[in-house]
Design brief:
The complex is a heterodimer. Chain A has 25 helices and 17 strands. The longest helix of chain A has 21 residues. Chain A is globular. Chain A folds into 3 domains: 196 residues, 4-Layer Sandwich (Aldehyde Ferredoxin Oxidoreductase,  A, domain 1); 184 residues, Orthogonal Bundle (Aldehyde Ferredoxin Oxidoreductase Protein, subunit A, domain 2), CATH 1.10.569.10; 149 residues, Aldehyde Ferredoxin Oxidoreductase Protein, subunit A, domain 3 (Orthogonal Bundle). Chain A has a 6-stranded mixed sheet with strand order 2-1-6-3-4-5, sandwiched between helices. In chain A, strands 8-7-12-9 form a 4-stranded mixed sheet. The mean pLDDT of chain A is 97. Chain B is an alpha+beta fold. Chain B has one domain: Beta-grasp domain (Ubiquitin-like (UB roll)). Chain B is built from 3 helices and 5 strands, in the order E-H-E-H-H-E-E-E. The termini of chain B are far apart. Classes of the chains: A alpha+beta, B alpha+beta. At the A-B interface, helix 8, helix 9 and helix 10 of A face helix 1, strand 3, strand 4 and strand 5 of B.
C-alpha cells in the first residue's frame, strides 16, 4: 500500500513566493498529522525568541488525515504558531467545513510565512494558490468577510478569516470559519500581523486515501458505533448548552472571577432556559451531531441577537465572571465576539478581571470610559467587548489579556489575573477539580480545558481509574489525559466525537487505511506519539524561556479558599502544587526543573532537541 | 424522608420536562427505581437490560461521584442525587 503523508503548501507573504512540498513519510510515521505536524514543523522551522508578530513566525493551518471523508467528527482543523498572548506554543482548533475543504484543495498543511505590505487574502482553487488584495474587506467583520468571499468565488467556497480584533492585534483574536472559531492563544492576531485577512478555498469533493475500500468499511463501522452511543444521542440533543447544570451542581462553575464555584440562583441559566431561545442546529462537515445550538433573542434590549452558541464555555464567559443571569446578554456577547473575531474565554475572563478591579477601586469610572462595572450589570460587559475588539479606550488595555493588563495596572491587580502562562482559565474551577487544574498548570499552551480534559473529576469517568476530585495526587491521570488528547489531535478529532465509543481501536485502523502506515493500528503506538508530541512541545517552550515556575496555577487558587454556596467543595484550596509537580515531572521522565532528560528524548526519537534545550 | 433526584437536560423530555423529583428510597437504586415508576421512558436511558447503569452514566450524591457500587450507596433525608452523562471537552 502506498504511503499517503499529505502535501504542504508554503506561502511567503513577504516575497509572494508560493511552493508545494510532499510531507516526508518519516514525519507522517512519527507525528501522524494534525497537531503532530504542527509542532514538528514549527519546532524545526523557527528558532526560539522570534517575535510572534514578526515575519519569521510561522502560522500553520492543518487539517487531519481523515478530513473530508465519510468518517464522522474528524474534519476539524487547527492553527499552530507562537502565541502573542503567551509566548508559548499555540494550537487553536476549529470546526465547520473548512478542514474538509482544505483537504479537497489537495493540502493537509498550509504554512504562512513573512508579512504582506498590504492587506491580502489567499484563494485556493484548481490546485493553484493566489495572493489577492483584501482592501475591500479589511475592517469588515467575520460575517461580512465570508459573505464577500462567497460572492467573489462562488458557493463552493469555504473560508477562514479574521475580524477587526485580528486586524487590531487583540492578543486573543480568533480565526473564524462560518460561525466556529479557532479561539485560543491569539492566532487571529498573528494572522492580522501578517496582513492576511482570510484564506478562501473553492473546491470539489476529492478523496486522498491509501486504501479507499478498507477505509469506507471502517467508516461504516464507526457510524454504527456512534449512532448507538448514548453519549452521542445526548450530545446531539444538547451540545454543551447544559454543562453548566452539573458544574454548578458540583460547585466548579467559576463566578466573580474565580472567587465562587456556584452562581447564586443558577437555575436561571440552566440548559433548559437556553433551550427556550433555541432556533436551530449547526454542525461541522460529516458530523451527525450538529451540536452547535443556535439561539435568537426575540425581545428586550438584545432583541435580534442571533448566534450559533453560546456553548458551555461562552455561556460561562458571559455570565459567571460578572455574576449575571442574563442569558440574552450572553447570546449577544457571543455573537459580538464571533463577529469581531475574539476568543470568548479570554474576553469573558479579562472582563471579569476588570469587574473585580472596579469593585476593589483599582479601576475607576474615569478609567473605564464611564462604564460602571458592577457585578450583575451585563450592559457594560457588552460595551467592553466592542471596545476590546476595536482597541478603544479601556478596551486597548484589556485587549492585552489579563496578565499584561495586571502588570500595567499594578497595585496588587495581579491576584485578579486568572491565567496560566498568560492564557485565561476556562470554565472549570481548579480547586474543585484538581486534576483538571493541574492539566491547566502543565499544558503546553497554558490553561486549556481541551488539552487533557479531566472527565474523571468533572463527570465521574472511571477510566483509567476514578479520582477524588479534591485530591492533588493524580499526576498519572493528568498525564493519561494529556497524552491521549494529544494523539487524538493528530487526527484533529472533535473532543466530543472522541468519546463516542470508537476511540481507541477503530481510530488507529482508520488512520492506517488513510495513510498506509501499519504502525498506526497499534493503540500503544498512538499513545507514544502523543507523548512524543507532548515532549516536543515542552522543548519548544523551554527554547522560548519557559520553566518550572510557569507550570503554576494562578495565585488565587493557592492562597484563597473557594466558596461554593450550597455545593460540595467549600473551603478547597490548592496546597500541594510543588509536590504535584515533582511527581508529574518524575512520571514524565523530566528533571525537577521541568526539562525532559536526554534519555527520555532519545527514547521518543527527539534526540535533535537535546542540545537546543540543554537536556542532560 | 425526601431525596431530590435531579433530572439532567438529556433526560428531561422523557420526564415531562421535569427538572427534579422528590423520592423516598434508601439507596440510589431505590431512588432511581421510584423515578422510573414516575417516568418509565427513562429506564432504558439509565439502566441496561441487566439492571446495571448504562455506560457513560455516572451518579453524584451531594456533588460527589458515587462510583463504584453507586446503585447500592445509601442516601438519607435531604440528599441530592444527580444523574450525569459523561462527555469530554466543551
Amino acid at each position: 500500500m502506498p504511503v499517503n503523508a499529505g502535501r504542504l503548501l508554503r506561502v511567503d507573504l513577504s516575497s509572494r513566493k508560493i511552493s508545494t512540498e510532499e510531507i516526508p513519510e518519516t514525519v507522517a510515521r512519527d507525528f501522524i498529522g494534525g497537531r503532530g505536524y504542527g509542532i514538528k514543523y514549527l519546532y524545526d522551522e523557527q528558532p526560539g525568541g522570534i517575535d510572534p508578530f514578526g515575519e519569521k513566525n510561522r502560522l500553520i493551518f492543518i487539517t487531519g488525515p481523515l478530513a473530508g471523508t465519510m468518517a464522522q467528527g474528524v474534519s476539524r482543523w487547527m492553527v499552530c504558531t507562537r502565541s502573542p498572548l503567551t509566548g508559548a506554543f499555540a494550537r487553536s482548533v476549529c470546526g465547520a467545513d473548512f478542514g474538509a475543504w482544505l483537504k479537497f484543495s489537495g493540502y493537509e498543511v498550509i504554512i504562512v510565512e513573512g508579512k504582506s505590505e498590504k492587506p491580502v487574502y489567499l484563494h485556493l482553487a484548481d490546485d493553484k494558490c493566489r495572493i489577492l488584495g483584501a482592501q475591500e474587506i479589511w475592517g469588515q467583520n467575520t460575517k461580512e468577510t465570508q459573505s464577500w468571499l462567497n460572492n467573489a468565488h462562488g458557493k463552493n467556497t469555504r473560508s477562514a478569516c479574521i475580524g477587526p480584533a485580528g486586524e487590531k492585534l487583540v492578543k486573543y483574536a480568533a480565526i473564524v470559519s462560518d460561525r466556529r472559531t479557532a479561539g485560543r492563544c491569539g492566532t487571529g492576531a498573528v494572522m492580522g500581523a501578517k496582513n492576511l485577512k482570510a484564506i478562501a478555498i473553492s473546491a470539489q469533493r476529492k478523496s486522498f486515501l491509501a486504501d479507499q475500500q478498507e477505509f469506507e468499511s471502517l467508516a461504516r463501522e464507526q457510524i454504527d458505533i456512534i449512532r448507538n452511543n448514548p453519549g452521542f444521542k445526548n450530545h446531539k440533543e444538547w451540545g454543551t448548552t447544559s454543562t453548566q447544570d452539573i458544574t454548578n451542581e458540583i460547585g466548579i462553575f467559576p463566578v466573580k472571577n474565580f472567587r465562587y464555584g456556584q452562581l447564586e440562583n443558577y437555575k436561571k441559566i440552566l440548559g433548559a432556559e437556553y433551550r427556550k431561545l433555541r432556533t436551530g442546529d449547526m454542525g461541522c462537515y460529516s458530523c451527525p451531531a450538529r451540536c452547535g445550538k443556535v439561539h435568537t433573542v426575540p425581545s428586550g434590549p438584545y432583541a435580534g441577537a442571533h448566534s450559533e452558541g453560546p456553548e458551555y464555555e461562552s455561556i460561562w464567559a458571559f455570565t459567571g465572571p460578572i455574576n449575571s443571569h442574563n442569558i440574552e446578554a450572553s447570546i449577544a456577547a457571543d455573537e459580538l465576539c464571533d463577529d469581531l473575531g475574539m476568543d470568548t474565554i479570554s474576553a469573558g475572563s479579562s472582563i471579569g478581571f476588570a469587574y473585580e478591579l472596579y469593585e476593589k477601586g483599582l479601576l475607576k469610572k474615569s478609567d473605564t470610559d464611564g462604564l460602571e462595572l458592577v457585578y450583575g450589570e451585563h450592559t457594560p460587559m457588552v460595551e467592553l467587548i466592542k471596545k476590546i475588539g476595536r482597541r478603544e479606550g479601556i478596551g486597548d488595555l484589556l485587549a492585552e489579556g489579563s496578565k499584561r493588563a495586571a502588570a500595567s495596572i499594578g497595585n496588587g491587580a495581579e491576584i485578579a489575573s486568572i491565567q496560566v502562562k498568560g492564557l485565561e482559565l476556562p470554565a472549570y474551577e481548579p480547586r474543585g477539580a484538581k486534576s483538571q487544574g493541574y492539566n491547566y498548570a502543565t499544558a503546553s499552551i497554558g490553561a486549556s480545558h481541551c488539552y487533557g480534559y479531566a472527565g474523571q473529576d468533572i463527570f465521574g469517568s472511571p477510566i483509567p481509574h476514578p479520582t477524588d476530585r479534591f485530591s492533588e495526587e493524580n499526576a498519572d491521570i493528568v498525564i493519561y489525559n494529556q497524552d491521549n488528547s494529544a494523539y487524538k489531535e493528530t487526527g484533529v478529532i472533535c473532543s466530543f466525537a472522541g468519546g463516542w465509543g470508537w476511540v481507541p481501536g477503530l481510530f488507529g485502523k482508520m488512520l492506517k487505511a488513510a495513510r498506509g502506515i501499519d504502525a498506526y493500528a497499534d493503540n500503544a503506538y498512538l499513545v507514544k506519539v502523543g507523548e512524543r508530541m507532548w515532549n516536543l512541545e515542552r522543548a519548544f517552550n523551554i527554547r522560548e524561556g519557559f520553566s518550572r515556575k510557569d507550570d503554576s496555577l494562578p495565585a488565587r487558587m493557592r492562597t484563597e479558599r473557594l466558596h461554593t454556596l450550597r455545593a460540595k467543595g467549600e473551603g478547597q484550596i490548592v496546597s500541594h502544587q510543588e509536590e504535584f509537580l515533582d511527581k508529574y515531572y518524575h512520571l514524565r521522565g523530566w528533571t525537577k526543573d521541568a526539562v525532559p532528560t536526554a534519555e527520555k528524548l532519545e527514547v521518543l526519537g527527539l534526540g535533535f532537541t537535546v542540545k537546543d534545550i540543554g537536556a542532560k | 424522608m425526601s431525596i431530590e433526584v435531579i433530572i439532567p437536560p438529556f433526560l428531561q423530555r422523557l420526564a415531562g420536562d421535569s427538572i427534579s423529583v422528590n423520592v423516598s428510597g434508601g439507596t440510589v437504586r431505590e431512588c432511581l427505581e421510584q423515578l422510573i415508576q414516575l417516568y418509565p421512558l427513562l429506564e432504558e436511558r439509565i439502566f441496561t437490560a441487566r439492571g446495571t447503569l448504562r455506560k457513560g452514566i455516572n451518579i453524584f450524591v451531594n456533588g460527589k461521584s458515587a462510583f463504584p457500587r453507586e446503585l447500592g450507596k445509601k442516601v438519607k433525608h435531604s440528599d441530592r442525587v444527580y444523574i450525569a452523562s459523561i462527555i469530554m471537552g466543551g
